[in-house]
Amino acid sequence: MLSRKIRVDPQEIIADLRKQDIEILTEERLIKTITEIPKPVTYIGLEPSNVIHIGNLSASIPVFKLAKYGFRAIILLADLHALANDKGEIGEIQKFAASDRDMYEKVAKKLGVGGKLEYKYGTEFEDQKYFIQMLRLSRLINFTEAEKSMDEISKSSVSRMTSSLVYPLMQVLDIGALGVNVAVGAIDQRKVHVLAIENLKKLGYPTPVAIHTKLIMQGTDGRRKMSKSYGNTINLDETEESLEAKIKKTYCAPGEVEINPILGWYKALLFPVFDRPLTFGSKEISKFPDLEQAWKDKEINPQELKRSCVRDLAELLI
After folding, report:
1. Domain CATH number, residue 275
2. Last residue of a domain, one of 154, 189, 213
3. Taking all residues of the chain, what is their mean pLDDT, rounded to a whole number?
4. Residue of 87, 231, 54 lying closest to 154 (CA atoms)
């Protein structure tokens, strides 16, 4: 696929990315990156803390897809960030990071990019030179900008600690230090990425493109976003038995589309990664809007939707 430059039509790559509901800052700069940089770098940061879930995976799908098209793709196992965010001590955090790496690589193989992702620990490159640059960066970003960028990221117990201001500076600098051309994250990373776009050039780094997955998926309870702290997650290490048990209990009112976690999972994750029609009961459906309409019209019942969800998530995760 590659010689010196990516040979795929940039519009084909963007169309594939837009199978998810994403924001690109900006599409024009992404096209320029694809056409002008020989092997562009994309990345997403994962904060290792316990088991990662399909919400984390959904936010990472653009990185998997860009790896398929020849990007150098980095998964940052952000161990020092997790330490700053009160997620445990470094030894425990790094054990979680190793587990996260194994789970991501398992999914990468399912998506045809096994062996094409690079996994880096923050402790591998966040050294003295890095922290000198962070001090320079701290003179460019004011207190209020750093604080606002952490509103949806930091643990509440850390929100008033000094580490909550260091954290976004590290995120911004990671993008520069790793040579990232396309930074990927969920929409809660938008303010951090905007800080990177506005400030990294002042330190001599390239200005990155940013891609944000817009949907924060509902958890199994249908009341809150998916989060380990709420106990409403579908994790990447589920067994067939645990996956079936969780989906069996997932909130799923007939015809209800506003509060329906499973529909959200299909929109944010499953339809974007499967390049084929999916079956629901006796119906074969190729696009999420058609699934949503069929559900609204009660052409698919909860049992059929849940059986399909078990099947499709198992194919991706197990």
Report:
1. 1.10.240.10
2. 213
3. 92
4. 87
